[in-house]
Design goal:
By secondary structure, the chain is of the alpha/beta class. It is built from 21 helices and 16 strands. The N terminus is likely disordered.
């Protein structure tokens, strides 16, 4: 586990100044004779020792042993299919051959000397805790077998709430906007600390969280509840708390998406958003959370594939913008940590330039880690050719490699790259952690409507129809209701129920004492809106739970009882049911303004709104 003192060892002179000092790099540079294979590990400072010069020296000795090809490999972070580093599963092998020209992750590390691997469910990496730990150890063994045995960054997107890669039995938290509704920086830090400890126990040492975007556009299709809210000050304090929590647990935090992705109606996965914030608006709205992340010592910051003309009029996305990454982030905000691009497979970064140009331009702009280039070989070869042609200097490559190696030293990976699978049970999903997640969730649920005085529900046996979005969501709700004596029927309808399905469920509602309906982004779903209206017209009392965006309420004018959970994590659903029965008060307050269905007509519910239960 990361030692806090060790984590802060290398916060001294800027890397550029260090690397450009003529006395630092030996005459032989990358081609100098390598030391023995154990030299890098033996140079790791002992935990708790705060010798900046020694740490910088250890990083430099590792860097100096590397060839140009090995250095460029350190900047590549990609994924591989399979649940083992040496997988022989035919489907995984075929997929890896198609995208990388290798059979498995072990061969990927050997061929490209990649500096990092990122885990996804769709690539078969995260089936269960023991498997994840085994995969992580296998990857680190592959890296240890390289000529220069540099450990890997093993990363994932574990934001919690609606974006997570490692599911139960790992502890699940309610996500950023829910934490924003709870307003507790202590809870935000604790959630990150527990989550970070569990990730590190699985061999994951870099988390692409927290989200530092300020969600000021209710129609934002890609951020939304992934943000802590619309107030820059609230988001800044939450981001700083989570950076501390993750990093004190041994996991590098990644504040994202610089310079701020919160005011766009375009998804950068599928298009290129343009954000029209003036420089003054950027300073007031978008910059505070990133400034807070820098002050908190965030190990890494992720770029956004967005165009902000007032920050860079070139039309280049921020990921490829030198004025944004170097001018703003490096020079004005003073950030000297690792800049990681968002996925280079996304459409937002591929519209203007080819896949061979994007990696080079990202490095020229100031990025360090190149995340998920569409073709690893093309990216590697393009960067190598740029160095050989003089478009990039090897010293520029050295700057980025230095930062990446320094982050790995900070995490203690050179001395502690493997995890103990037998210790997982004492860390991941423990009773204490699960109880912590529930306590935090219980402070986030927000009650927006109780117009008919339905809540709190009186004790007693009742028949409840549980319907709306999500098979797992409706099942969890039904189980929570049954534990409180209800007889439940589940009728899951999805996000776009047909009119025939709506009519059938409304007919079912008439035979029950209560309906609990879950909505998910109903603001953009006329079918979900019709479902709720039909249920309200059935004559049976209805409680609406928005299990994602709180903005849904503006499009459900007939709902008399409405709660916002901001996530469909099981702890959030359990908290909502507790509120229904009056077991806990709905402590959450809106971290965003909810506009009316026609935003031009103003706010329906202001920032900070939230009802309590009577009595």
């Amino acid at each position: 586990m990361r030692n806090t003192t060790l984590r802060r060892l290398v916060t001294g002179p800027a890397v550029a100044g260090l690397l450009l000092a003529p006395a630092v790099l030996p005459a032989g540079g990358a081609n100098a004779a390598p030391a023995d294979a154990g030299a890098a590990a033996s140079a790791v400072p002992a935990p708790g020792r705060s010798d900046d010069a020694r740490t910088r020296g250890a990083v430099m000795r590792t860097l100096q042993r590397m060839t140009l090809e090995e250095k460029v490999g350190q900047l590549l972070v990609t994924y591989a299919y399979g649940d083992r580093a040496d997988t022989a599963d035919p489907a995984a092998v075929a997929a890896n051959r198609r995208i990388h020209g290798v059979d498995n992750a072990e061969q990927l590390v050997e061929k490209y000397h990649v500096g990092g691997i990122v885990y996804f469910a769709w690539s078969g990496n995260v089936k269960d805790p023991r498997q994840i730990a085994g995969l992580s150890n296998g990857l680190q063994r592959a890296a240890a077998g390289q000529r220069v045995p540099v450990p890997l960054t093993v990363a994932t997107d574990q934001e919690y709430g609606v974006v997570y890669r490692v599911g139960p039995p790992a502890t699940q938290f309610p996500g950023a906007m829910a934490l924003g509704a709870g307003r507790s920086t202590a809870d935000a830090r604790r959630a990150a600390a527990v989550g970070g400890a569990e990730l590190r126990a699985l061999g994951v040492n870099q988390d692409y969280a927290p989200v530092a975007d300020v969600n000021v556009d209710p129609a934002n299709p890609v951020i939304g509840v992934r943000s802590f809210g619309e107030d820059p000050g609230l988001v800044a304090t939450m981001v700083a708390a989570q950076v501390d929590g993750y990093q004190d647990s041994g996991v590098s935090a990644t504040a994202k998406h610089f310079p701020g992705h919160g005011d766009t109606s375009v998804d950068s996965h599928t298009g290129l958003p343009v954000i029209d914030h003036t420089r003054e608006e950027w300073e007031r709205i978008d910059a505070p959370p990133f400034r807070a992340a820098v002050r908190a010592g965030a190990d890494s910051i992720m770029t956004a594939h967005i165009v902000v003309p007032h920050l860079d009029p070139s039309g280049d996305p921020a990921t490829l913008s030198e004025p944004v990454l170097t001018g703003l982030l490096r020079e004005e905000l003073g950030y000297d940590g690792v800049i990681v691009t968002d996925s280079l497979e996304m459409a937002g970064v591929r519209q203007k330039y080819g896949d061979d140009r994007v990696p080079v331009l990202a490095l020229k702009a100031g990025a360090d880690q190149l995340l998920m280039p569409p073709d690893t070989a093309v990216a590697r070869d393009a960067v190598l050719e740029a160095v050989r042609s003089g478009e990039l200097t090897e010293r520029r490559i050295d700057e980025s490699v230095y930062r990446v190696l320094r982050m790995k030293y900070r995490n203690g990976l050179f001395g502690e790259r493997y995890v103990d699978p037998d210790a997982i049970g004492s860390v991941v999903g423990t009773g204490e952690h699960l109880a912590t997640a529930q306590r935090i969730a219980d402070r986030t649920t927000t009650l927006l409507r109780n117009d008919d005085g339905l809540l709190p529900l009186a004790p007693g046996r009742r028949s409840v129809l549980v319907t709306g979005w999500g098979a797992a969501t409706t099942s969890h709700l039904a189980s929570a209701l049954e534990r409180r004596g209800a007889d439940t029927e589940v009728a899951e309808t999805g996000t776009s129920p047909t009119q025939a399905r709506i009519d059938a469920v409304a007919d079912e509602a008439a035979g029950h004492d209560l309906v609990v309906v879950a909505t998910n982004k109903a603001a953009g779903s006329a079918a979900q809106q019709r479902l709720v209206a039909a249920l309200e017209a059935s004559g049976t009392p209805v409680a609406v739970l928005a299990v994602r965006d709180p903005y849904d309420v503006a499009h459900l004018p007939d709902s008399g009882t409405y709660l916002a959970t901001y996530s469909y994590a099981q702890v959030s659903l359990e908290s909502a049911v507790k509120v229904l029965f009056g077991e806990v008060q709905p402590h959450g307050k809106l971290p965003v303004t909810v506009p009316k269905a026609d935003p031009a007509q103003g706010a329906l519910y202001p920032y900070g709104f939230g009802l309590g239960l009577p009595g």
